[in-house]
Amino acid sequence: MNAVIKTYGKIDVLLYNAAAGRPGKPTTLSVDQLVEDFKISVAGALTSVKEVIPHMENGTILLTGGGLALHPYADYASLAIGKAGIRNLAYSLHQELSPKGIYVGTLTIKGFVQEGTYFSPENIANTFYSMYENQTETEIMFEEK
User: Fold this and answer.
1) Rounded CA separation 118/124 (Å)
2) Three-class SS of residue 103?
3) pTM of the predicted structure, to 2 decimals
4) Which of 8, 25, 48, 116 is packed most tightly, with the most Cβ within 10 A?
5) What are 83-121's pLDDT values in tens digits?
């Protein structure tokens, strides 16, 4: 990050797209496994945000969410908990940071990312870019209609 600050003087955008979630029903996961996945999915996002906000002036923070936050699936309990955490974090950060001129938004992807479908990486990237340009919604539901 020091190289970015030295070169550009500030950070304009953070896109956090990391997630962890091992397959398994809630009762098959150990507490340690759940906490490890949560650290990547949610605590990692918060750590990244805290690193960049001192270097942002009217910046943008975008977090990748998932439909499991809204409709959990027991076989992927850890991932669902992580996506629910990211959604909550996005709304909390938006409340805290928007008065400081920093836009926070989350894109809740309600499907499986796959090339050649509505959920293609290109369509998702275009939606993120639209969020960056418009900065109006805290959450966009990315779903096929």
Assistant:
1) 9
2) strand
3) 0.94
4) 48
5) 999 999 999 999 999 999 999 999 999 999 999 999 999
